[in-house]
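Could you help me review a protein record that somebody else here produced? What it holds is a sequence and that sequence's fold in token form. I have pasted the whole thing underneath without changing anything:
=====
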Amino acid sequence: MERKIMSLGKSSLVVSLPKEWMQLNDLKKGETVAFSIQKDRSLLIYPRNLKKTEPKEITLGISQNEEEIFITQKILGSFLNGYSGIMLSSENVFTVPQTKAIRNMAGRLYMRVMEAEPKYVYIQNLMDESKASLEQAIQRMHLISRSMCEGALTALKNNDVALAKSSFSLDDDVDHFAFFINRILRNAAQDPNLAKELHIDPLDCMDHQMLVSRMEHASDYAAEITKHIIMLNGAKQTIPEDVLSLMIDTGTEVIDLYVKAVQAVFSKDVTAAVDIMKHRQKLEKLDVEITSKAFIGQQKSPELVCGICSIRDNIKRISHCTFSISEIAVNRAFKVATPESFDEQKIKY
């Protein structure tokens, strides 16, 4: 669709708006539209008083023998793609495991069961994404993730099974935030009105999604560490002091860098992000040293060797997440500002 630029008076130029677009947005002569200049120099025009889109709903058919994992993934996929109402309909009646799977997944996504019958369940999301603070949600997710990592390391140092179990239980809270944030980001990537209300653009959506993914993975690796602490305690196996000391030193440094990497993303601190990357070689050497000590010296049981190697591997994986987050920090620091925010662009060197 094209429009000619026409002259109006001696100094004004005008372009007519398509009638179909006016009708679609219920606009009439004399009403006001707003516009914003995009980074590619295009012009985005939208109604001044944005109308809220109607909540999307979807019906999911569930077969009698459908496994619980497929049901939960259907619900999750629908939630992440912006559906506010999800109707699950069974060809016969839901089995007890299927009903439990539906209710558990609804709880994890902060959705509520609004209607329930033997053959159908309707769950609904009651949150308003436009009123959410994206940065605040990510920061809160990071606080829980950080607590998990620090708790896992303290439990490892003190062989504290109670703390290990407590830290492991936080993994669900991290997942709650991850699901909620990813839903917002996917919706914002498709809905310019929501993106404008949240003050983000498509590149922000991609960067934030990568950041949330890395934080979620770091939390999963911390949860794995706690599981092996519990396993070793149950098998009455103790990690040798020299190996444990090396693990604690490495883990402490990794978690400290992890926290600084997330801070660098929001502060756009390039120097801090690059400094984090410089620790890669040192941490790789420590990892090799832990591996060698696990097999040297007194004969160790298979359970102990397996536990040591798994804990070492998960500490290493958290470091990989950390380096990936520091790369996101650098990329975001050099992101081209929009015309409206160009004067506010600040990069720390």
Remarks:
- The two ends are 45 Å apart (CA to CA).
- DSSP finds twelve helices and eight strands in the chain.
- Strands lie at 6-8, 12-14, 33-37, 43-47, 56-62, 83-90, 111-117, 120-125.
